[in-house]
Amino acid sequence: MKIIVDKKYDSVLESLFKSMDHWYTSNFVLGIISLINTEISNKIRELSNKEQISFNYTPWTQIEFDDNELLPEIKNRINFWIEDIVDSVTIEYSNIQTERVIEIINNDNEIISNYVSKVFIFFLKDINITISETKALNISDFIISEVSKALNNLKIKEI
After folding, report:
1. 35, 44, 121, 140: which could form a disulfide with 81 (CB 3.0–4.6 Å)?
2. How far is Cα 63 from Cα 66, in angstroms, rounded to an integer?
3. In angstroms, rounded to a whole number, what is the distance separating the alpha carbons of residues 74 and 56?
4. pTM for this one?
């Protein structure tokens, strides 16, 4: 709720709502936004028995995104985010919801990819790093493919 009322997050809300309208589960949508909301990230990490996030990066100057030149603390935060997305779907998962997410990702992941890229752009902008929308979408596609692999590795029981 805090995210919806805080104007700071307006740039990601449209894609968040589109994802939910497209029947992505709320835990999956929250896992994605966990990059820009430490409270959500820490709740996911608590449930998965992982260390809590303490990301206190202070940007020095405006820079262009270069995945080969990112500081370790930024890389770690992004890697934790990917873990959070996977964990948000795989911890105490529902077979029906998980199958639905897999189906949506396999058939049409444009909406979720756009949402992931908007969250990623927001995060980087907040720490004075600029990234092109095209590059953000490419990274988003990679993240979605990693999540898809993790979901496909689950042992989903037939009902």
Report:
1. 35
2. 9
3. 10
4. 0.89
